[in-house]
Amino acid sequence: MRIVFIGTGEIGVPTLRALQQSRQELVGVVTQPDKPAGREQKITAPPIKAALSRDKVPILQPVKIKEPRAIEEIRRLAPDVIVVMAYGQILPRAVLEIPKLACLNLHASILPRWRGAAPIQAAIATGDRETGITVMYVDEGLDTGDILLERKIDIAPTDTGGSLHDRLAEVAPDALLAALEMIAAGTAPRIPQDKEHATYAPKLDREAGRIAWNEPAEDIERKVRAYNPWPGAFTEFNKQKLKIFSARIADAGGKPGEILKRGPELVIAAADRALSLTEVQLEGKKRMSTAEFLRGQNR
User: I need a labelling partner for 8 at 20 to 30 A (CA). Which of 32, 57, 184, 264 fits?
Assistant: First the structure.
C-alpha cells in the first residue's frame, strides 16, 4: 500500500523506520518546519526529517497543514493510507478524505483514557499501572476516533516521562504494521470509544512543572518522574529555580515546603511525608547529584 507518514516528534522515528523497512510503500512524509532550538537558537530539523536525511522520500513541511497548497501536495502523493503520530496539528477534513482506505493515528495511551497532548506524563503523574499505543481512525475530534487495535505495556515504578516515551516508541511499529495488515486484508475492526470513560491530558508548559509542596509526597514524586525531561519539575531555592530530576519519599514531617535536612541530603516537607531530592540542577548550573549540589552551596 502507498503510505504517507505525518509526524514530528522523536516518538515517531522507530515507526517511520519500520515503514521504510516493511513491504509498504512510503511515498511521502509531512512534518513541521525547521525551527530555532537550543541556547544558540540554531535552525534545527524536526526528528522525523532528521531521520530521513539520507533518504529520497519526499518531505513536505507546511507551516499549517490546512493550507490549500499543503492539502494539494498530499493529495498528489495518492496515498492508500495516511499514518499520523505526534504531528502537533489537527488534520482538517480535507486531509482526512485523501487516503483511499484509512487515516490512522498512533496515540500514546489506551484510549479513551488520556486523550490530548500529554498522555505519557498524565499516566505517570496519576499513578496508572499500564498504558500503551492505540491505533485509531482519525476523525475531526481530538483523539475521539474509532479504535482499530491496542498494544498495552506496564508502567514501572521507576519510569520517567522520558523512559516511558522511549518504550512506547518501540511498541508503536509492531502495532502499526499489524494494523496495516488488517487494513489490507479487509479485516480491520472499528471499535467506538466509550465516551463516559474519556479523560484528557492537556498540553504542558514549563509552569506545569512547579512543585506544590502542599500535595502528598507520593503525588509529588510521581510528578517529578512524569515531568522528566519535559517540562521539568522545579521549586524555588534561595530565590533561584531548582530543577528536580529525581527524588525519593522520606519518612519525615514538617510544614509543606520546609527544608528539613540539608547535607548530605536535601529533604523538603510535603503535605504528609517529605521528599529527598537526589538529582537537581540550579538555574544556570549543570545537572548534578544533590550531594554535589550541596557541597557547592557550602563553599
Answer: 184
The reply to whether 249 and 144 lie within a common domain is no
Q: Look at residues 168, 201, 234 and tell me which one is the last residue of a structural domain.
A: 201
For residue 298, the model assigns a pLDDT of: 66
- The domain boundary, picked from 150, 183, 201, lies at 201
pLDDT over 80 at 264, yes or no: yes
pLDDT in tens, 219-243: 999 999 999 999 999 999 989 999 9
242: Cβ contacts below 8 Å, ≥ 6 apart: 234, 235, 236, 280, 281, 282, 283
Shared domain check, 240 and 191: no
According to DSSP, the β-strands at 59-60 and 25-30 are parallel
Domain of residue 150: give its range: 2-201
- CATH number of the domain to which 37 belongs: 3.40.50.170
Question: For residue 246, what are the CA distances in angstroms to 17, 65, 126, 165, 229?
Answer: 32, 38, 17, 17, 10
Distances (CA, A) of 200 to 65, 89, 174, 197, 203: 24, 17, 26, 10, 10
Q: Are residues 139 and 257 in the same domain?
A: no
Helix pair 119-126, 217-226: axis angle to 10 deg: 160
- What's the structural domain count of the chain? 2
The model's pTM is: 0.95
* Per-residue pLDDT tens over the stretch 104-134: 999 999 999 999 999 999 999 999 999 999 9
pLDDT value at 36 more than 80: yes
Q: Put residue 127 in one of left, alpha, beta given phi > 0 → left and psi -120 to 50 → alpha.
A: left
Residue closest to 67 by CA, chosen among 47, 38, 92:
92
